[in-house]
Amino acid sequence: MQTHTPPTPPRGTVRLTRRGRTALIATGAVVAATAVAVPLLSTDAQKDPPVLVVPEGWRSGQVYEAMDKALALPAGTSRKSLRKARLKLPEDAGGNPEGYLFPAAYPIDGRSTPEALLSRMVGTANKKFTGGTVTAGAERNAMNAYQTVTVASIVQAEAATEADMGKVARVIYNRLDRGMPLQMDSTINYALNRGTLRTSRRDAQLESPYNTYARMGLPPTPIANPGEKAVRAAVTPPRGDWLYFVTVKRGDTRFTADYEEHRRNIAEFNRVARSAPPSPG
């Protein structure tokens, strides 16, 4: 969500029909985004057999890089293997497995291949995402399963804590219902291949279908691979009228439906940021 730049004033309330919301969400063409570098060692070599660990919230590029390292393959091998992996992805995905490389621990051995690992990840995601609970929750929210996974990926990226996940999901649905742009920094970060906490006015003018400041509806694909808790939040968010949120400081994320209150929260975020000691190095 927006942090240090002044937010867009709220629009008039627009209630969309189910068909109308689906059309809104579908806006924008699919483009490829390169993921950020792998932030931690993802192979547990102490286990027998070794295990490839995919953390919640990793982007597909991070998964490919970790797979190459775990399987001792040249960089880029796992990404290229997508063409022959024949993954069972939703039609809406257009062959892009982002969101469906399910976070879990995957044993590897001398016979493991990128195609086999990718198929296992997508198979696990399909089992998690096509169950009755997810399907029913998606329908309640006037979504399909793929759109729900996209919401969950934003929740995974935006929520500072597990307790905040449901509220972030509710903000997304509330803004869609009101015909407001989502204005999520995480979607711009995905397009720009970064993980910064701040988004500038210039960033908000980025020409990309993942720019949810400039474009209405959800981004065209998930922006990460969400875990079960984020999916659960996207399926069954709590009731609430929240339209804005900002994490003022660690453990203090403030949700509100009032635009002026949100501006005050942003001002406090900026005060806290200015007073924080500089990072070492």
Strand content: 5-15%
- What is the H/E string? HEEHHHEHHHHHHEEH
Main beta sheet: 3 strands, antiparallel
The Cα radius of gyration reads 19 Å
- The rough form would be described as globular
Number of helices: 11
Q: Provide the low-confidence segments as ranges.
A: 10-41
In percent, how helical is the residue content? 40-55%
Distance between the termini: 28 Å
The domain tally reads 2
Helix/strand-derived class?
mainly alpha
User: Mean of the pLDDT scores?
Assistant: 85
The total of beta strands comes to 5
Record the strand order, biggest sheet: 1-2-3
How would you characterize the overall build of this protein?
Helix content is 41%, strand content 7%. The chain has 281 residues and is mainly alpha-helical. The strands form two sheets. It has a three-stranded antiparallel sheet. Mean pLDDT is 85; it is low at 10-41. It has helices at residues 18-25, 60-70, 77-80, 82-85, 114-129, 132-140, 145-158, 162-177, 185-192, 228-235, 259-275; strands at residues 43-44, 51-53, 105-107, 244-249, 252-256. A hairpin with a 2-residue loop joins strand 4 and strand 5 (252-256). Helix 7 packs across helix 10 and helix 8 (162-177) runs parallel beside helix 10. It contains eleven helices and five strands; from the N terminus they run H-E-E-H-H-H-E-H-H-H-H-H-H-E-E-H. It has two domains: 18-30 and 133-274, no CATH class; 43-129, no CATH class.
